[in-house]
Amino acid sequence: MTDPERNVLDEDIGAIDGGSDRRFITALARGFDILRAFKPGAGALGNQELSRATGIPKATVTRLTHTLAELGYLRHLKAEGKYEPTEAILALGFSVLSNLVVRQVAYDPMMEMAQQHDVSVGLAARDRLSMIFVDVCKNRMLSTLHLEVGSRVPMPTTAVGRAFLAGVPADERAFFFQRFEERLGAEDWAALHPRVEDAIAQIEARGFCYVEDEWHRGMRAVATPLVARDRNTVMSMMCGAPAFRVTREKLEKDLGPRLVHLCEGLAPSLR
């Protein structure tokens, strides 16, 4: 299967500029942009490829990759003249996952739903203009939907992304809408915008939204926001499967309401 995550929105925003913020360290931000440029299944990348992916000048990329290799976060494949991430990066992510209380509390009910109903259930957080999964539970027989911890999906074309948008304040949502228009172009965003608004309206009316055939053809999913009691943290949870494994009626009449109930119970664990 081709990687559905690699699209114009997942090019993100390019190298972030701190603007007039004197406390912002651009070199550090660029180093993280280099690490973010490595995508699952994409393999090793050379300095020229990293420069194109990040918008950072090649000379600067060369210094950054050398530094990251010296620190142990990149491995230099001298024969190919390319770099690949090392296992040391896993320590950074593991510390986040291990301290995420809601993930620990959610795992058992997510796995129960996945196994009982033959679906994938995923918990996701925002990653720039995308959603990144911090946990995924699925039946072992369900191999069609290739979602794992760390998988990134576009925000505006997925149920889990639209659920997140429904959970954030209106001014923050407007910011995302502006960025989508910038990245997609006015014409494409004008076509997509009503579908995003419809999903938000679904969530306001019944607590979850239904999406089919947008991010991945043949896939059906429902999703709901997971919002902390103080509303300072917003995540979202989805439940989905290929169309031949789950009906729309099953998702809307049974699994969607179950998902809403689950997230209502998890909200106190989110901080």
Structure summarized in a few sentences:
The chain is an alpha+beta fold. The protein has helices at residues 26-36, 47-54, 58-71, 88-98, 101-117, 159-167, 170-184, 186-206, 248-266, and strands spanning 74-77, 82-85, 120-127, 130-138, 152-154, 209-212, 219-227, 234-242.
Please provide a written account of the structure.
By secondary structure, this protein is α+β, with helices and mostly antiparallel strands. Helices cover 46% and strands 18% of the residues. It contains nine helices and eight strands. The strands form two sheets. Strands 5-4-3-8-7-6 form a six-stranded antiparallel β-sheet. Helix 6 (159-167) packs across helix 8. The protein is globular.
Tell me the β content.
15-25%
Count of alpha and pi helical runs: 9
How much helix, percentage-wise, in residues? 40-55%
Number of strands: 8
Task: Summarize model confidence as the mean pLDDT.
Answer: 88
Q: How big is the Rg?
A: 19 Å
Structural class: alpha+beta
List low-pLDDT spans.
1-8
Distance between the termini: 36 Å
Secondary-structure element series: HHHEEHHEEEHHHEEEH
Largest sheet: 6 strands, antiparallel
Which strand order do you get reading across the main beta sheet?
5-4-3-8-7-6
Query: Which geometry do the CA atoms define?
Result: globular
Q: What secondary-structure arrangement, pairings included, does this model have?
A:
Elements: H1 26-36, H2 47-54, H3 58-71, E1 74-77, E2 82-85, H4 88-98, H5 101-117, E3 120-127, E4 130-138, E5 152-154, H6 159-167, H7 170-184, H8 186-206, E6 209-212, E7 219-227, E8 234-242, H9 248-266
Antiparallel strand pairs: 1-2, 3-4, 3-8, 4-5, 6-7, 7-8
Helix pairs in contact: 1-3, 2-3, 6-8, 7-8
